[in-house]
């Protein structure tokens, strides 16, 4: 598992850290399903739900009775944990919202510029499901949308084999504030929200993680609805030196590996002793892991580099979903990290904290997209519109510049629109 990366060139690094899956490998399938949903609506959604999930659905939307029955199955202690998580998520995301609906400031005499903030009217939240339950993801998507002031929140999540949604996921969606919930997953859910069907309304933006097919579908439907980011198989890069605790690193790497056989769990360190200790810890801790079959197939690797700066540069090249920093001077290392979905600093900052209860968001870009995409945040649900308040004196002060540049570009009518105001 341990590999030496002393003085390795960029091309070799790219090969070492090449992702196992790519969106292009499944895009044809995503296109086929999405196009059929666009044309066939609910009938196509039902067809593919039966084909992919083995469920023959009559009603796509969760009913009030289904919601009531789900909530009744959840114990008070679990409800309390969901409430605490909601409180922390809401508090953190409220700090990201602009303090007002608009701001204006005087740029020069007679010219005030600013921005107006407008929440999206309707968004679609995709919560993975099927064989598992992900109430935490429901909270991470719905709560920020509520904080932003979105008017209507649509949620889609895959049904179980009996055609129902896991009670815990349904309860979380309800507590967080989803307005309508549909028992639909996969590409068909993304396409339904993007294009609209007889039952599922068209949304302005689709948010939420999923498998490689869901991610491909999100990329494909961007002509009809905006998306948050490509969010696929989970990833972690741990940057550590000889002060780090091997058992902590091993447990965090295993935690991400248990997500998916395509997950990525990596340690970057200048310490060969730490590398060897972590390798031993991983083998020891895997012995009793309930999801060991998945963990064994996931992409786990330990890499020894020249120094911490080299480790950070490799991390920036990978641009992973999660980064953990366990070094002597963590804040100095943090300042050098440019590409990451989220960063955890210190020995007692495991990814699991952000996954469930710290309040920061766990819906993050994967597959190297952290180089250009941000993670889920309140501003994902708010549009900004520039506002320009210009008085006669202000226009006069920039009149010569406007008309000169307009005439240089050959747009005489633009120039005349300014001259006209001073005739």
Description:
- The structure is a single chain.
- The chain is of the alpha/beta class and 423 residues long.
- It has 3 domains: 24-227, Rossmann fold (3-Layer(aba) Sandwich); 232-371, Rossmann fold (3-Layer(aba) Sandwich), CATH 3.40.50.1980; 391-422, no CATH class.
- It is built from 17 helices and 14 strands.
- It has helices at residues 10-16, 27-40, 42-53, 64-72, 76-94, 135-148, 167-176, 186-195, 212-220, 246-257, 272-286, 292-297, 308-318, 330-336, 351-356, 392-408, 412-419, and strands at residues 2-4, 102-108, 111-119, 122-126, 152-156, 180-182, 205-207, 226-227, 235-240, 264-269, 299-304, 322-326, 342-345, 382-390.
- It has a 6-stranded parallel sheet with strand order 1-11-10-9-12-13, sandwiched between helices. A 5-stranded parallel sheet has the order 6-5-4-7-8, sandwiched between helices. It has a 3-stranded antiparallel sheet with strand order 2-3-14.
- β9 (235-240), α10 and β10 (264-269) form a beta-alpha-beta unit.
- The mean pLDDT is 95.
- Keywords: Amino-acid biosynthesis, Histidine biosynthesis, Metal-binding, NAD, Oxidoreductase, Zinc.
